[in-house]
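Its record is retained below.
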Amino acid sequence: MKRHVMMKTLQKKKKLHLVLGLRGTLYDYSRISHVSDREKHLIGQVDSRDDLWRITAQSHEGLIKLRPFVAEFLREANKLFTLHAYSLSRPEHSDYMLKLLDPHQTYFGRRVICGRDTWMKTLDLVLVDERVLVVMDDQCSTWWTDHTNHLLQITSYRYFQRPTTTQHNG
């Protein structure tokens, strides 16, 4: 039934569906306590830039930096695809990120999938026929092996330096 309904919808819209990973694909995140001395100046630039935000999440503060040209990418991709967001982050974090990336729900609407009880992503949660689906993510290892034939792996976006010592990233 799902396939029949989705194929009829596709025939009307003539659009493919693009599932986008969030962190590492569309933005980078760092806890402020992990920001290097070279990057500390960014904290003071938050209010003057439209690609950098300071957030408070649970018991820590962080910086979010959008991948260059992500707004243009979403605008153009939306013309060709029906966009979906997929994240293994907590729903609150994904919701917050989508408010920054898509404040008017122009691109993703309610097509957001958050990993709640799993550490792996699956197309079983994307309510679209797999024949009309493309996945763009920076991490192939987060997808179940049988779904990687739909995956277009891109270079991971890493703006912030990573700590050199092993630290818990809760």
